[in-house]
Design a protein that fits this description.
5-stranded mixed beta sheet, Arc Repressor Mutant, subunit A, AraC_XylS_family_regulators, alpha+beta, 3-stranded antiparallel beta sheet, single chain, Jelly Rolls
């Protein structure tokens, strides 16, 4: 699949580096592939795929390069932009039961032509010239809504996350390395309410529970799945290997490496 000289580019506000999607964005993979996990299911994206990543979802990405390259087109639809669009183009929004983190969009002549149309505006620095950003974003949004009218119920729903079952929510999302404020917001609670209800359910603080739960999972992976420490620390929400090893030894009295070595000797 060839799209002339288009390389990675980005339109709209920057995407958060956290494992959290703060605003909807359109993603097109030019080169490479990617697997995303949202705590409930996996989403596989290959070169040439189009999808919508939905706001207020937790996601971890694993990127795979093709011939040493991973290139994508990202177009962000932030709330301020969407509200201005809605003022000019009114839509009747309805409730939706679809809670998928990624919505795949089939290629058609309009979207393909749109991607091709980005090339004249592309300045080679992963950013379209500022003059054309909102014009091109609005053009894409109109194409998407024309071909997939149900997307209006996704894009123009400006409500905060609904109140979730806290025990289920935390046991599904404890691996994500985000702040307590994010956990509270995504579970549909204020931070104070989140902490209070958390203590009632789990009989401990969120910080202590998260560390303990992640380390329990780590021990299981080391002992039963024969994983190596450097393969699991990041996916369990630890920022670096040394922090993971220190916390693991403090909880279990032995280092992750020793756990692996003992299992290797036994087998």
């Amino acid at each position: 699949m060839k799209f002339n000289n288009i390389q990675s580019c980005h339109l709209g506000p920057e995407i958060s580096p956290e494992q959290f999607i703060p605003e909807h964005f359109f993603l097109f993979l030019l080169r490479g592939s990617m697997v995303a996990y949202d705590g409930y299911k996996y989403y596989s994206m290959k070169q040439g795929d189009y999808c919508i990543a939905r706001k207020n979802h937790l996601v971890r990405y694993t990127k795979h390069k093709e011939d040493g390259q991973f290139e994508k087109v990202i177009i962000a639809f932030d709330e301020a932009f969407l509200k201005k669009f809605l003022e000019r183009h009114p839509y009747q929004v309805e409730a939706t039961d679809n809670d998928d983190s990624f919505l795949f969009v089939k290629e058609d002549k309009f979207i393909k032509s749109y991607i091709d149309s980005l090339e004249p505006y592309y300045n080679g620095k992963e950013q379209i010239e500022a003059t054309f950003v909102d014009v091109k974003r609005e053009e894409l949004l109109m194409i998407l809504l024309k071909n997939h009218s149900s997307l209006k119920d996704i894009f123009f729903n400006f409500n905060s996350p609904h109140k979730a079952d806290l025990e289920l929510f935390m046991n599904s999302n404890y691996k994500f390395n985000i702040s307590l404020e994010r956990f509270a917001y995504l579970s549909g609670r204020s931070l104070s309410t989140f902490k209070r209800e958390f203590k009632t359910i789990f009989a401990t603080s969120p910080g202590k529970w998260l560390t303990h739960r992640r380390l329990q999972e780590a021990r299981y992976l080391l002992e039963h799945e024969h994983k190596k420490p450097n393969e699991i620390y990041f996916e369990l929400g630890f920022e670096d290997l040394s922090h993971f090893s220190f916390a693991f030894k403090k909880q279990f009295g032995d280092s992750p490496k020793n756990i692996v070595d003992k299992k290797t000797i036994v087998h």
